[in-house]
Amino acid sequence: MKTAILLKDRVFQLRKQAGMSQQQLGEVLGLTHKSISMLESGGRSTTIDKLVILAEYFHVSTDYLLGITDDPAWRGAPLEEHTGA
Predict the structure, then answer these.
(1) d(CA 28, CA 1)
(2) Rounded to two decimals, what is the model's pTM?
(3) Which long-range contacts (CB under 8 A, 24 or more apart) does 19-23 make?
(4) SS3 breakdown of the chain: % helix, strand, coil, rounded to 5?
């Protein structure tokens, strides 16, 4: 499925751009580094809840993660409002 391919590639790309290890991203999502590895290799998908966490964490749209659009623009609440900072 095309969406699964884009999701794995985009998660990998965003994680690398952030300078994060699979272990660090796993901690954000409440997953093991093995689960992140499987997600990035296309061996597993993710839940809607985890997809939303990914989008919020990397400040991109879920549509971008899923490959519906190539525009990563965040359309949610401003970061400071969303995180309560």
Answers:
(1) 26
(2) 0.82
(3) none
(4) 65, 0, 35
